[in-house]
Amino acid sequence: xxxxxxxxxxxxxxxxxxxxxxxxxxxxxxxxxxxxxxxxxxxxxxxxxxxxxxxxxxxxxxxxxxxxxxxxxxxxxxxxxxxxxxxxxxxxxxxxxxxxxxxxxxxxxxxxxxxxxxxxxxxxxxxxxxxxxxxxxxxxx
Amino acid sequence: xxxxxxxxxxxxxxxxxxxxxxxxxxxxxxxxxxxxxxxxxxxxxxxxxxxxxxxxxxxxxxxxxxxxxxxxxxxxxxxxxxxxxxxxxxxxxxxxxxxxxxxxxxxxxxxxxxxxxxxxxxxxxxxxxxxxxxxxxxxxxxxxxxxxxxxxxxxxxxxxxxxxxxxxxxxx
Lengths: 141, 172
Prior knowledge:
The structure holds 2 protein chains of 2 kinds. By secondary structure, chain A is mainly alpha-helical. Chain A has helices at residues 9-28, 45-48, 57-63, 66-72, 86-90, 110-113, 128-133, and strands at 39-41, 53-55, 123-124. Chain A is built from 7 helices and 3 strands. The model of chain A has no long low-confidence stretch (mean pLDDT 86). By secondary structure, chain B is of the alpha+beta class. Chain B has 2 domains: 12-54, no CATH class; 72-168, Alpha-Beta Complex (Cytochrome C3), CATH 3.90.10.10. The chains are: A mainly alpha, B alpha+beta.
């Protein structure tokens, strides 16, 4: 009876290699360790073939108090809760109140905001809940 | 102490959220560059944000279009007077440095000390204080920053102790 391909030495090496690749593929999916308060907004990006948006709270609060966006500009306190799209931004709403080439970079600079890994879900990253719900996450180096 | 630049804040391309292949990533400011200069903390962004503001390390704008004068309030509200944990001192000052009254009142909190039924269960689910704490402002693992007043220190005081002043005119 001819040996099945997976039982020979080459077959075993192939199997080992496949197992290693399989393990590496899973190791590669590291838990996100974004900066505390980073919000990924992916309401429409994936569907439109764009990378999702990363909104870094830390960067913005150095330059603006919370109330500028959350009171004056009307941003809800909820990740993905504002139904922002590019038409609104170009119209000067939401991000467009500053990202107009006057206060901050304008909308032509797509890649500066749309910079998240494709498929990243809409959420506040590194939140207490996220960390408590995933205690296996390795400590920050 | 001990916030070494590079040890606390991951480079954007390694943070698991930014796509290292995205052409914009290398142009963005790195957290370590911006946050490493500010008063260090042990949690969250590893920055004492209120202290950084008070010391003038950062000068965040108060408005885009100058309308009404910013509203500040500098009293402390004591909460959780009947629980087992130390009493919560809520400082209006630290909050109104950043926020407008309308951000919390009245849809999140009635503007009467003691009128709100607060619960850690709700807070941990992102309601009440948890709208910000645990997401952007210091995380919910920092219990003693809110539960900061020894129960013995306010024994015999009325059930809803609110100390201090009223609305303070904009400090300018």
